Amino acid sequence: MQATLRRPIRFEGVGVHSGKLARVEVRPAAVDEGIAFVFPDGKRVPATSDRIVDTARATVVGEGADSVSTVEHLLSALFALGVSNADVAVDGPEIPVEDGSAERFADAIAEAGVALQDRERPTLELTQPLSYRSGDRAVVLLPADAFRVRFVADFPPPVGVQYFDGAIEPESYRREIAGARTFGYLHEIEALRARGLALGGTLENALVFAPDGPMQPLRWPNEVVRHKVLDLVGDFSLLGMWPLCEVIAIKSGHELHATVTRDLRRRFARRATPEKVR
């Protein structure tokens, strides 16, 4: 069933890329409203992949002069915990980074409570495999009766190859995925900042890898790939439908996820009534 929050939740903090203060209030919304970003000028922009305006190091959603960056962590938590209708009022260029994961978002959603609504949730149900590829990166979608992600990440040392396999449902998401932090390499920081990125990044809100290993204690040995799954769930929320499929992702990121979800929405998006994809 569709669902919304029982009460509003609020977040305030720095944006990891802009370094600027950002405020967010996530409010309950009526059935069939979907998730949307509400800007200070009153514009309401649906959180769907046709509104993606950039995928460089983060997913940016907007329309015209209004946009908000780094939406994937908050959307990931909302989506995985079952919230299908919400207004996300934003004040600032980004969603606050919090500790670099989705844990605080997920905890706040769980504390506020999720209220079921009297309408079925739109779903995407595959009857045949689909595949997408960009260079050595790939996403394959297989028919399944639940949303499951198998992810292979492959990064230069000291990260290397990591793997995660798990179903996306509220309890396991909070236990196994939500706490995985965004990450980067120490040698990349100056280059990122020269491009106007990572201006708000610190050891308190990002997992940083030096040549000899992580500069902070890991939460899991494969925390990097768990964060990649977190990002994928947030990006797939932009389908506007719950995916009943198994996603096999190999080295994929925001750009390829945007390609996948845009294509699926162009071909299969349904607003109110669940339909099978054929």
What would you note in describing this structure?
This protein has helices at residues 72-80, 103-112, 170-176, 189-194, 223-236, 254-268; strands at 3-5, 9-14, 21-28, 35-38, 44-46, 52-54, 60-63, 66-68, 86-91, 114-116, 123-126, 130-134, 137-143, 148-155, 160-167, 183-185, 207-210, 213-214, 242-250, 275-277. The protein is α/β, with parallel strands linked by helices and 278 residues long. The strands form 5 sheets. Strands 11, 12, 13, 14, 15, 19 and 20 form a 7-stranded mixed beta sheet that branches. Strands 2-3-9-4-5 form a 5-stranded mixed beta sheet, covered by helices on one side. A hairpin with a 2-residue loop joins strand 17 (207-210) and strand 18. 41% of the residues are buried. Mean pLDDT is 94; it is low at 271-278.
